[in-house]
Amino acid sequence: MAKRKKEYDMKTIRLTMSQALIRYLTAQFIEHENQKIPLFGGCFAIFGHGNVSGIGEALFSVKNIFPTYRGHNEQSMAHAAIAFAKSNFRRRMMAVTSSIGPGATNLVTAAALAHVNRLPLLLLPGDVFTYRGPDPVLQQLEYPQDGTVSVNDCFRPVSRYFDRIVRPEQLLTALPRALSILTDDSNCGPVTLSLPQDVQSEAYSFPLSFFDEKIHHFYLKISGNEELNSAIQFIKKYKKPLIIAGGGVLYSKASNNLQIFAEQFGIPVCETQSGKSALKWDHPLQMGSIGVTGSHAANTIAKNADLIIAIGTRLQDFTTGSNLLFQNASCLSINVNAFDSIKFNSHSLNADANWALLQLSKILSENNWQMEDNWTLNSCELGKKWRDSVTEITSKTLPPSSDFLPYEGEIIGAIQRSSQNSFKDDIIVSAAGGIPAELHKLWRSSEPGGYHCEYGFSCMGYEIAGGLGVKMANPNKEVIVMVGDGSYLMLNSELATSIMLDLKIILVILDNKGYGCIHRLQKSCGNEPFNNMLKDCNINSLENPNIDFALHAKSLGAVSEHVTSIFDFEHAMLRARKSSHSYVIVIDTDYRRTTELGGCWWEVSIPETSQYQKVNHARQNYQDTRNKRL
């Protein structure tokens, strides 16, 4: 038997570097419900002279088992790949290839987004010739101080693993390393393999065994007994805990154990943007969103809690209220990533959320750990009061007067009323601006993964491409994308891709004639309106721009309509749900209106001195609040 194995290992196959790379990717699998499923859902590609001949030829040869999807913008197709991975809770992923030069640099923003959000993404940008015969090649950036540098070196700080493949046989070590990062819960993130165009086409005799099928298993990361016991002793000192559920709860598929743990001890639960949908919206212990975009219930409890149990969250400033919201509480951070688990001066439990919750439930029960009298009861009352407020806000169908237009809260209510299945078949997608703030507070999620918001990098332009990726991962779900006019103008091209691939999304465009969220922030900092709303910009025409978004969407192939009221919008949503094609609904909204209830302070630095009195007054308020933390 050993002899046969040795003979097999000695067998080789002559392949180009590109052919070997793609063949290796097609051999990677996961197991799901006793079925073997490809780890990679395929490859997004825009071809150019840096990848059309090498990677393009290799992808063509496997197009029936490893599909290639043509995007319309490198950044947005990478966003779609990221959304696909997030919707699969990091258990599946996609590759993305581009040409050299601008095609590659367009991917850098997406790489940073995946890095910040700890999401797997395999980037395969083309690179310049290694042998330098035609140097400088078209689109090559020349760096006089270092002849080895190309634009692809921009990927180094935004990649978890970076490698430039300058010989075909380097794949033998580079690809296993890449896969180890992409499938590692504790170190997950983007991988960039920079592929010089001449090397893409060079051949090597690869060991046949290198292409054996491999099934990847996602193992629970467990801590040692000492670390677990230390966490138990730490928790037992406190009687007023609050759980913050982050994205790690969803990625470890720990929603069920989270509910069991919370119910067992009567601990209130709140959710970050990434963690929203970890616990059903109407559970008695659900306090809603936390932080700057948080509910009144969650933020009130956070201020009074003596212990924060942060699960699978990196505790960024929108969650912690710029480290002011729960500074009087101690924090236990449960996270597979050691770097994240020590933030906020936390007591660290470096472990998988699912495993940790199971262990904590068992051991704390044996230790008869109990809450302070009325802590659970009072929390539940606050949670119910918040949910009643959400119902009231989202039930309104008319603005407060004829001087106002509809706003996000009323639109969210109309979307959910149009659902025929208690929101279970809907996935809402958003990113950046004011829409995520309203959704974080007001969207009611019934199933894990029913809420998909990119708010780690808060990247305008993610929304439509993200919706496409979510739909690819969930073809039987209704994917609803909420996007502002600013983000739509920034990156809308993958709407055409959704139509080309017959992957229906419902796109709701909220047109407030500018960047309403930053306009409000600008005014709260004491500044005059400037360069955010279109009417406050440097415009040389006699009239403000009036963009027909419905007509633009129709030109891309979507079914589209423009509505003027919540009543008409709700009926449009019913038509959109019945449609088999991507459907766009445009509604004019009021940039002045937001959900005032909830929220907390967020630190945005204000000029220390200014010729404007409003700015000076805002600076004083800023300093007074900041001093409370210091």
From TrEMBL:
This is 3D-(3,5/4)-trihydroxycyclohexane-1,2-dione acylhydrolase (Decyclizing). Its EC number is 3.7.1.22. It holds the Pfam family TPP_enzyme_N. CDD domains: TPP_PYR_POX_like (cd07035). GO terms for molecular function: 3D-(3,5/4)-trihydroxycyclohexane-1,2-dione hydrolase activity; acetolactate synthase activity; flavin adenine dinucleotide binding; magnesium ion binding; thiamine pyrophosphate binding. GO terms for biological process: inositol catabolic process; isoleucine biosynthetic process; L-valine biosynthetic process. Residues 65-132 form the Thiamine pyrophosphate enzyme N-terminal TPP-binding domain. One of its GO terms (cellular component) is acetolactate synthase complex. Residues 229-339 form the Thiamine pyrophosphate enzyme central domain. The gene is iolD. Belongs to the TPP enzyme family.
